[in-house]
Amino acid sequence: MSVLVVAPLSAVPDCIRRYGPSHLVTLLSPEYMIDTPDGLDPKRHLRLAIDDIAEPWAGRLHATEAHVLDLLAFTREWDSRAPLLFHCYAGVSRSMAAAFAVLCDRLGPGSEAAIARQMRERAPHADPNRLIVRIADSLLDRSGDMVRAVDSIGRGTLVVEGKPVHLPLSLEVAS
Fold it and tell me: 88, 136 in Cβ contact below 8 A?
């Protein structure tokens, strides 16, 4: 079974070499947006230009319903035979929220709390972007379950940059 890998921007080249992902999701502010790394098909690279903010803020690009719809559509095309790599600048907020949304989509209603707990076990630094989570919760008709699940695990250990984390496409105990 394949996995989701969540990493900071600085670890993307190493994660591509190490894990050989078939798909890449980049969530970066426009000024930090990257081109598709060598060896990856540009059609398998979703680039979402959004700032890491939890509420709309003048002069900044916040996540929108269109961004999350693009994320869900893109990842539904992923066949899970090879890893799916998510990254943002620090690998803490936007990419964790995107991975959480995708896992909730894949594992279905009722899985939200267990996914959040597993994320916390594997990534003590995870602090999923609350705006992305709220939008995904609405689009997936989860009636606040995704928001409550993320709130239940707290803000995460404060770090400058997270380390690459594996999130399985199933609910299991962290190894």
Answer: no
CA distance 92 to 127: 6
Q: Work out how many domains the chain is built from and give that number.
A: 1
Domain span holding position 80 = 3-168
Residue 173 lies in a domain: no
CB-count exposure of residue 64 (10 Å: 0-12, 13-18, 19+): middle
Percent of the chain with pLDDT over 70: 97
Segment 121-169, tens digit of pLDDT: 999 999 999 999 999 999 999 999 999 999 999 999 999 999 999 999 9
117 found inside a domain: yes
Question: For residue 152, which of 115, 125, 123 has the smallest C-alpha distance?
Answer: 115
| CATH number, domain containing residue 47 | 3.90.190.10
The region that residue 149 occupies, defined by phi over 0 for left and psi between -120 and 50 for alpha, beta otherwise, is: alpha
pLDDT digits (tens, 9 = 90+) for 62-106: 999 999 999 999 999 999 999 999 999 999 999 999 999 999 999
